[in-house]
Structure formats: C-alpha cells, structure tokens
Specification:
85 residues, mainly alpha
Length: 85
Amino acid sequence: MGIGTGIAIYLTVWWTTLFAVLPLGNRTYAESGIEVKDGGDPGAPVNPNLKRKFITTTWVAALIWGVIWLVIRFGLITLPSMPNS
C-alpha cells in the first residue's frame, strides 16, 4: 500500500466513522424540555460536543485503519480468495 492509498483509505474510514459517532450521546431540545424559539428545530442537539466527537472519530478511525493495514500487509485476505458474486 502506497502512502497516497493509505491516506485515501484513512480519510474514507474517518468520514464513515464520523457519521457513526455523531449521534452518540446527543440530547435534543425536545428531550431536555427546553422550548425552542425563533424557528429552531426541536430535534437539534443541545450540546453536540463536536470537538470530542472529532477526537473520538480520529482514534477509532486510526484503529480501524490499522486493522485494514495489517490485513493488506500480511495478505490475510487476498483478492483470489474473495467469493465471486
């Protein structure tokens, strides 16, 4: 795996992981009993904690990327061993 391929795979894994992490631990205005004024959405999170979620996304994506790298590096799954559909 070249450096460009590794970066591309990491960014793809990071972006996918971000969408898995974003909804975790959110409380909406409706769930918190806070009335929304001026056209706000009651389903919006009160405090989204984006900095913490970006940090969590980064280390989780690094772990997943590490597993992918190990599989590719040591040939644990090769292209001929994958089933044809």
